[in-house]
Amino acid sequence: MDKKPRIVFMGTPAFAVASLDALIQAKMNVVGVVTAPDKPGGRGMQLQQSAVKQYALEHHLPLLQPEKLKDPAFFEALAKWEPTIQVVVAFRMLPEKIWSFPPMGTLNVHGSLLPQYRGAAPINWAIINGETETGVTTFQLQHAIDTGAILMQDKIAISENMTAGELHDKMMLVGARLLVKTLDGLMNHSLVATSQEEMISEKNISHAPKIFTKDCEVDWNLSVQQIHNLIRGLAPFPGAITKVEGKTVKLYSTSIELAHPIEKPGTWITDGKTYAKFACSNGYLLLNDIQWEGKKRMPIADFLRGYRPA
């Protein structure tokens, strides 16, 4: 393709900014940006701009913030940009009229090695399930969520103590680079899309649904490794939760101590000075930091200096 495609970028959080910036740095022809409307937030409930909007304004990129994606006025404004292709990174589900509109369709960047971990929270669930490897996939949007033909993938190793936040930050950069490679491949006709259906028959598929409060509650009857994975898979947000002395406690960082506990799983154990841990079915979970109900997150030693048992 001799002429650079006219790209419309759609995204909202900081994760998407890395991809948008990669397109700009690669001198891609980004003709417009679509992001979420401003929303009230903070102590004063002032209107807050999305990270993508802030970037678009700083770089003088045309911007749309539709309240409803099915609004005819939005489609009319989008059509005026005459996109050749659309790129979606961490945005809302698009109506078919929108994603099918450009001649080259719509490209999505997803935080897993599809068809594994389709859904809203692939980073969290990969860690919660104890995976040692995940990755990023670029694929073509179609009717069902995260089911379109795969264009490119890049793998990422998950270390034994990596948190969802750490994986998010690494994946953000890997995904941005993969997006540029994918667009280059589409422009020079070197990419061949692969149907996900061909891959599903070869493996068991794990899914990545939205995280709800019940998913964050620690089941102390699980193994110490499973609980450690849950905690790091929910860190720093939304955080794993449990109850201690009638208080709700969030756990963010832990270490494993394999042993044969004599205490009941879930028992809170501390010397009141330097350490706190929970008994599990096959060991102890040592706390590195904690957020006690009504307090800020802090290292466990700092917390214990002011802790008085109930």
What's the arrangement of secondary structure elements?
Elements (H helix, E strand, L loop, with lengths): L6 E5 L2 H12 L4 E5 L4 E3 L4 E3 L2 H8 L4 E2 L7 H9 L4 E5 L6 H4 L6 E5 L11 H7 L4 E8 L9 E8 L6 H24 L8 H5 L12 H4 L7 H10 L6 E5 L2 E12 L9 E3 L5 E4 L3 E10 L5 E2 H6 L5
| Largest beta-sheet details | 7 strands, mixed
What would you give as the CATH superfamily of the largest domain? Formyl transferase, N-terminal domain
Number of strands: 15
Q: Provide the number of structural domains.
A: 2
CATH-scheme architecture of the largest domain: 3-Layer(aba) Sandwich
| Alpha-beta classification | alpha/beta
CATH class of the largest domain: Alpha Beta
Tertiary shape? elongated
Topology as H/E string?
EHEEEHEHEHEHEEHHHHEEEEEEH
- Work out the helicity level: 25-40%
Widest sheet: strand ordering: 5-2-1-6-7-8-9
How many helices does DSSP assign? Answer: 10
